[in-house]
Amino acid sequence: MSVESFSVCAVAPLHRPGFATRWDALARAENEVARLRAEDMVLDLVIDSGVSALSETQLSMFNRYAHAVNGAPYDELAAFVQDQFGFPHVLPIVKARAAENVLFWQLLTEGRDETPIVLGNGFFDTTVHNIAHSGGEAIDAGVHGQRPPTVSAPCRGNFDLDRVKALLDEHGPRVRGFCVTTTITAGGHPIDIDNLRAVRALADERGLWVVMDACRFAEHAALARQQVPALADRALPDVVRAYFDLADVVYISAAKDAMSPTGAVLLVREPALHQQLAGKIHLQYGYKYTGGLPLMMLAVMTQGMREALDERWQAQRIAQVDQFAQWLAGAGLTPWRPSGGHAVFVSSDALRGAVRWDRFVNEAFLNTLYLVGGVRAGGFYQGRGTARYVQELEAGTLDDKVLAEHMAVRLCVPRRRVTTMQLWYVTQAVAQARHAMQAHPGFVVRGTNPLGELVLDFAPGGDVEAYRAAVEERARVVDAMMA
Ligand SMILES: Cc1ncc(COP(=O)(O)O)c(C=O)c1O
Q1: How many angstroms separate the CA atoms of 102 and 278, rounded?
Q2: Residue with the nearest Cα to atom 8 of ligand 1?
Q3: Residue 240 near residue 183, CB atoms below 8 Å
Q4: Which stretches in the chain have pLDDT values below 50?
């Protein structure tokens, strides 16, 4: 157990919807937890992005720069980026996905006729789509899918270097560069610095670029330090810098490690590329010194990046997430190991009860967890969640073995917002929900609603009343913990 490295300066009460309210809220949300409202839940672990508690220094920025349209925050951001990250140019922008959009458009749409390829170690889904939007193809050449994630192994964010070389030989000049995600979305794992050095060397040999998607740059450095012996004694900012030194362009969503409500930054080395990107940002988002963000948000992002590099904070963060994983394992669940930075991924196999794989196991569990403890989590299936599952279900290609190994429920830990004691509560809710899953009949697709979203119904013949009684009984146990 690790003691929090901060003191709390503002608090908000948790919402406490009762069981009947939760049952009705879920019915209104058509059994889709993504449609629940914040007011409907006790704890929301569906995302770690844009949900961190702000520090007193970050909060003070809102007033200090409330009216500024140009000024010190940009200079401070640029100085911080230069000093800590070693990049001469920085472009603020509203979201990392907007950064991906302008960046890959710039990097991929000029030059060759054939579909350009970007190789990755574990792409985030918007990255795949933004590369496709620019006429390119994202090919995952990471090791993460090769072994069941429940079998512990260090640096699951590595590239499979043999596969990378084979892809370079096969596709030749169609491969335009690499996109390195730190940490990878599937499990939140780091990449070994030697693995990245090897990728850098291949890029240099062939004149390719290396882009880094580094929204979890500090968690990544902390985890890399634990998993790569050569980094063990180095200071956190040093480790971040060592990785960044190997990239030509880095983009950072400030809503994760930088604990900002929103915003992102693009770090660029080459003046010509900087000019091109600045021009595009100006057209699509706003002045190149703000990228469409209010100036106060630049100050919040810079301060958040500074706080992310605090050794004590990052040590406590990593230990808190690991503690959560250990508790879940102790309750009979199977978390992916080693623990990642931003979330615990729990294998769906151990919590599916009697639900068949083709009956929306994750959705059934997410519903049950919400009903039992008022907790929201997310589903995860090889990086693409329900979308991929539904595609495979429709195509008749669902494979029980692959699902058993790679389907998970993701419990994110919002930074500085959720206490370790509350994670104990969530552990109990997960354990109780797992029991109640024995009564879940599974889901089938009823169709889509007018917004095109999936609507699920209990599988025909299922005893919904028995399920309701089972979750209500388990909810009583969990609710009592919050008394
Ligand atoms: C690895 C990764 N890259 C990029 C993004 C996109 O960031 P943003 O929400 O700022 O667009 C995310 C968001 O969750 C992410 O996890």
Answers
A1: 9
A2: 96
A3: no
A4: none
Looking at the structure, do residues 137 and 275 belong to the same domain, yes or no? yes
8-state DSSP, 82: I
CA–CA gap between residue 104 and residue 387 (Å, rounded): 24
Query: What's the total number of domains in the chain?
Result: 2
Minimal-distance CA residue to ligand 1 atom 3:
124
pTM for this prediction: 0.95
Question: The tokens 């690790």 sit on which residue?
Answer: 2
Kindly state whether residues 44 and 88 are assigned to the same domain.
no
**Is position 7 within any domain?**
no
Domain that holds residue 137: 56-308
Residue 1 lies in a domain: no
Helix (H, G, I), strand (E, B) or coil at 338: coil
CATH number at residue 30: 3.90.1150.10
Please report the atom of ligand 1 found closest to the CA of residue 50: 9
- Ligand 1 atom at minimal distance to the Cα of residue 48: 14
pLDDT for the residue numbered 383: 66
CA 311/CA 317 separation, integer angstroms: 10
What integer pLDDT is reported at residue 145 of this predicted model? 85
Question: What confidence tens digit (pLDDT) does each residue in 200-252 have?
Answer: 999 999 999 999 999 999 999 999 999 999 999 999 999 999 999 999 999 99
Per-residue pLDDT of 27-73, as tens digits, reads 999 999 999 999 999 999 999 999 999 999 999 998 888 876 778 99
126 lines ligand 1 (CB under 6 A): yes
| 231 and 289 part of one domain | yes
Whether 301 and 317 map to the same domain: the answer is no
Does ligand 1 have an atom closer than 6 angstroms to the CB of 253? yes
Q: Any idea what the CATH number is for the domain that residue 61 is in? A: 3.40.640.10
